[in-house]
Amino acid sequence: MSPPEVLPTTLFGKMKSFLSSTIGESKLARNFYGVYRHQSMQMLKFSIHEDKAELFETLALRISVQTTKHKIVKNLPGYYLGVLRGLIDKALFSDAFMDYDVAVEGFYFR
């Protein structure tokens, strides 16, 4: 009888496990983790967004890896950065425009 499989508990371990099981490349986990830490530090400054951290951890990584099935991605950590930035921007600023009654599209700045 073999010992039970130990599931990773840290974000880095989860990324490494996910990348090795999907694309077979666990060495990229360090790059992905660095990108996530840099971007999430900006987001987590605002305590109202702390609950979204786990969503970004899994969603951005899954979107990036699934994209490799549909097209060639030359720089996967770079693509992950773009996806993560987009998700964070939407989370941080989507609620900001809900407070105003006037449509934003009607204004032109000169």
Q: Can you put this structure into words, describing what you see?
A:
- The protein has one domain (11-93).
- It starts with 10 loop residues before the first helix and ends in a 17-residue tail after the last helix.
- The protein is globular and about 55 Å long.
- The mean pLDDT is 77.
- It is mainly alpha-helical and 110 residues long.
- 55% of the residues lie in helices and 0% in strands.
Short description:
This protein has helices at 11-22, 29-43, 53-67, 76-93.
Task: Draw up the topology in text.
Blueprint lengths: L10 H12 L6 H15 L9 H15 L8 H18 L17
What brief labels describe this structure?
about 0% strand, about 110 residues, single chain, about 55% helix, 4 helices, mainly alpha
Class by helix and strand content?
Answer: mainly alpha
**How many domains, as an integer?**
1
| Rg, alpha carbons | 18 Å
Please tally the helical runs, counting DSSP H or I stretches of 4 or more residues. 4
Tell me the total number of β-strands.
Answer: 0
Form type:
globular
**Low-pLDDT sequence parts:** none
The percent range for helix content is: 40-55%
Largest sheet: none
The whole-number mean of residue pLDDT values reads 77
| Oligomer class | single chain
Work out the strand percent. under 5%
Q: Kindly, what is the distance between the CA atoms of the first and last residues, rounded to a whole number of angstroms?
A: 73 Å
